[in-house]
Amino acid sequence: MEKRDKGSSPMAMMMGSRDENEDVENTTRTAETMLRLVPMALCVSALVVMLKNTQTNDYGSLSYSDLGAFRYLVHVNGICAGYSLLSAVIVAMPRASTMPRAWTFFLLDQVLTYAILAAGTVSTEVLYLASKGDTAITWSEACVSFGGFCHKALISIAITFVVVICYAALSLLSSYKLFSKYDSPVLTYPGKGIEIATFQG
Amino acid sequence: MEKRDKGSSPMAMMMGSRDENEDVENTTRTAETMLRLVPMALCVSALVVMLKNTQTNDYGSLSYSDLGAFRYLVHVNGICAGYSLLSAVIVAMPRASTMPRAWTFFLLDQVLTYAILAAGTVSTEVLYLASKGDTAITWSEACVSFGGFCHKALISIAITFVVVICYAALSLLSSYKLFSKYDSPVLTYPGKGIEIATFQG
């Protein structure tokens, strides 16, 4: 209904609210650019904290690179920072959103969200095992000897989860921007047909 | 453009393609119901395989419940099976898709996708650690002594990842169904204004 009303008076829409629409467009574009720059900054900080995470004491030496999950976290944060910067630059440019562009953003945002979520959860599990250990499987509580290492890892993981929230919002936004270009899948349903007939008659 | 053309001739649409639209609607509803029943079946199998996963030998006894990640996998698979069944029943009913319903499906599908992905990745990490061990952190390779346990866990995790793929598709579908109800966020952009003016004049 709403769509048809808007479509039936494009002249009125043009005359009255052309500037207003441009303002709204600029505001949303700025907001989206910000929403992409924030995770970039967070990814870089999570990456730096984890990269510098090495502890050496009487028990030996422990580095982030000794654990596959933390290596994966560093890699994904690096990729995520790069993608966030690139996508922020593209979004910031005042250009019409085309269909292939909307699809690319949608798919990449989804993939990045899944990848960063996986990195966060996997690292959390490793940190959990390192702090609690597992007696059944005879895994020791590494955090007792390497407290500083675990603390820094926790900071890095916490930052990563903030990135996850940002990316969940971004993938919601990009799916809205993509699918709002399409028609609703349901064209007829009970009651609608009568409504249209009344509207016409 | 396409939306306006459709909107301008609802009578023609009603007369010619009412039955056709209903057929399309029924087909998509059946397809979505199937897409929700498949992960239900898979969740139940992943859950059963993991629940029965216990091995006792000379080294001791190892059960899925000894590992937090595998317990989480069982819980999420249970919730996922229940939600899949419930949502399949709701989708199967021939009723108009309202806005609150579309939002509920969208949000729950997203949350379930993230939860099941987290369960899959976390369990994969634990299985990886159990099979490879970690010398730096002095974690033993438990799969050497508990081969059968690890094999069953691998099957359960593999099934869980098929569920992840189903749910990624479902969240794509539900975001399409939700956001296609909304107007495109960009109302005016370079060139569009002129196009509308020509259309009107």
From TrEMBL, chains A, B:
InterPro entries given in the database record: CASP/CASPL, CASP_dom
Signal sequence, start to end: none
Transmembrane stretches, start-end: 34-52, 72-93, 105-130, 153-173
One Pfam family of this chain: CASP_dom
Domain of life of the source: Eukaryota
Major subcellular location class: membrane
Swiss-Prot/TrEMBL keywords: Cell membrane, Membrane, Transmembrane, Transmembrane helix
Region (Disordered): 1-27
Subcellular localization(s) per the UniProt record: Cell membrane
Domain Casparian strip membrane protein intervals: 27-166
GO cellular component, one term: plasma membrane
Record membrane topology: Multi-pass membrane protein
Assembly with partners or alone: Homodimer and heterodimers.
Family: Belongs to the Casparian strip membrane proteins (CASP) family.
PANTHER family from the UniProt entry: CASP-LIKE PROTEIN 2A1, CASP-LIKE PROTEIN 4A4
Full protein name: CASP-like protein
Organism in which the protein naturally occurs: Populus euphratica (Euphrates poplar)
